[in-house]
Recover the amino acids of this structure.
């Protein structure tokens, strides 16, 4: 074992924060268990550190220990927190390969950032897709509504037209019934039926019959588009 640049006693320096950190560090490596008597904690820690140094790669391990402490202090100063996770051997090996040109913590931070950005972009893409679907369905519904409104307007127009035609037909029927009645009266007078009419009424009814026959003959010819008679 070569000469140490700084002894464990001087490095530990009865620093309470360093003692607490060192307990966790050595416990994770299986080199330390806290004594029942808390006044013996520092002595137990120094014993564990010397045991670590006494191993074949001891000085390097002690240097790694001190480097780990410096990283802890730096992380604490920058607001970083220590996170302990259990990884499968294959994952741990992959993480080590990814961290060849940088530290493990920086690699993990990069992976977390990339995953966060991926999830953010994916969420934005999903929101855009939902908005597009809503817009398309809204546009389709508005088009159907407009078409339905046009159909309703057309049906209302047709209804109004049919109602007007019905009213006209009802008026025409009423006129026809009145004409038929008048015609029957005139025909009855011509046949000599006693309808309780005065001579003047009978004469007027006969004249009315002639007028009606002439009027409807002309009307039928006009409706049927009969060619005019050659006289």
């Amino acid at each position: 074992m070569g000469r140490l640049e700084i002894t464990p006693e001087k490095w530990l320096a009865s620093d309470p924060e360093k003692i607490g950190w060192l307990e966790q560090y050595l416990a994770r490596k299986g080199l330390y268990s806290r004594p029942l008597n808390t006044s013996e904690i520092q002595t137990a820690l120094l014993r564990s550190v010397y045991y670590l140094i006494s191993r074949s790669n001891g000085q390097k391990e002690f240097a790694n220990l001190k480097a780990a402490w410096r990283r802890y202090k730096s992380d604490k100063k920058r607001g970083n927190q220590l996170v302990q996770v259990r990884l499968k051997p294959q994952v741990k090996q992959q993480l080590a390969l990814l961290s060849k040109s940088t530290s493990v913590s920086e690699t993990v931070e990069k992976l977390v950032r990339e995953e966060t950005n991926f999830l953010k972009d994916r969420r934005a893409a999903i929101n855009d897709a939902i908005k597009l679907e809503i817009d398309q369905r809204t546009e389709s519904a508005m088009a159907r509504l407009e078409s339905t409104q046009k159909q309703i307007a057309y049906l209302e127009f047709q209804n109004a037209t049919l109602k007007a035609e019905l009213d006209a037909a009802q008026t025409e029927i009423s006129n026809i019934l009145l004409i038929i009645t008048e015609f029957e009266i005139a025909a009855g007078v011509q046949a000599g039926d006693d309808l309780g009419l005065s001579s003047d009424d009978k004469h007027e009814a006969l004249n009315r019959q002639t007028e009606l026959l002439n009027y409807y003959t002309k009307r039928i010819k006009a409706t049927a588009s009969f060619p005019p008679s050659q006289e």
